[in-house]
Each structure stands twice: as C-alpha cells, then as structure tokens.
Amino acid sequence: MQKFLQKYKSTMLYGISLALLLFLMKWLEFRFMVINHTLEIYIGLIAIIFTALGIWLALKLTKPKKETIIIEKEIYVSDAEFIQDRNQLEKLNLSKREMEVLKLIAQGCSNQEIASQLFVSLPTIKSHSSKLFEKLDVNRRTQAVEKAKRLKLIP
C-alpha cells in the first residue's frame, strides 16, 4: 500500500488541488451570481411563495363543503290484506267523492284524468283536492297519498 501511495503521490496531490480549485471557482461563481442577481432571486422567491399561497387559497375557496344529512323516515308497508280504518275516515270527515279523488291520485292520475273519469269539471276536482289536502293537513299529492296509506285509508 505504501508503494502505491508513493508512486501516485504527485498525481493524487495534483487531483486534490484541481478539485479544490474547481470548488473555489464554483463558490466564487455562485457568490458572483448571488451578488449580481440578488433582486431577481428575491423576486423569484416572492413569486413562488405567492403562487403557492394562491393555489392553496383557490383550493380552499372552491372546495365544496359536503355535508351529509341522514334522514330517517318510516316506510309503511301495506299488509297482504287491506282493511280500511273506518275510525280515521270518520275522524277526518272525508266524503265519498274525496275518497274517490284520493284513490285516483294514489293511482297517479292527473287532475284532468280524474275529472274525465268522475265526469266532473276540472275546477271541481281542484276544489276536492284542496279540501282533501286541508283535511289531511298536507301540501302535495305525494304527501296526501303517503299519509292516507299510513292512516290506512287507501291500500
């Protein structure tokens, strides 16, 4: 090993000195670059910071706020054999015509179709529907059908 070191001692010293000189030149070049281009470097750093801040803020502002709402609602399943609740029928004081309108609403018929099936005018059906909604304390046809099924007025 000693022979090897003595044989290549000058070459190794020459290589190490070249490496140190190269390091010194690169350090001086970097220092010269920093001194001459200080303003550009600061502007570039500020631009990068503001760009990152802008991206982060845009993602925060445009991200939709998802809120999951769980609604539990009872579903009334009709029995195999339907028995109309007469007590509820008397309690609500529904007429036979209102019951016919309710059954046709439950079948999905429009007001015009109900009027033609019952041989009455459209305003009459609208009047029956509004009285039916009032008696069942609902606002829509679907609510009326759901409540009538729950009260066992219709199958």
* Radius of gyration, CA atoms, in whole angstroms: 44 Å
Q: Unreliable segments (pLDDT under 50, ≥5 consecutive)?
A: none
Average residue pLDDT: 84
Please report which band the strand proportion falls in: under 5%, 5-15%, 15-25%, 25-35%, 35-45% or over 45%: under 5%
- N-to-C SSE series? HHHHHHHH
- End-to-end Cα distance, whole Å, is 104 Å
Helix fraction? over 70%
In terms of structural class, how would the helical and strand content be classed?
mainly alpha
Largest sheet: none
- Find the count of extended strands (DSSP E, 2+ residues): 0
- Label the overall shape: rod-shaped
Number of helices: 8
What's the arrangement of secondary structure elements?
Blueprint (H helix, E strand, L loop, with lengths): L1 H6 L1 H28 L1 H25 L23 H7 L3 H11 L4 H8 L3 H15 L4 H10 L5
Helix pairs in contact: 5-7, 5-8, 6-7, 7-8
Keywords:
single chain; 155 residues; mainly alpha
Explain what you see.
- The longest helix is centred in the first third of the chain and has 28 residues, at 9-36.
- Helices cover 71% and strands 0% of the residues.
- By secondary structure, it is mostly helical.
- α7 (122-136) crosses α8.
- It is built from eight helices and no strands.
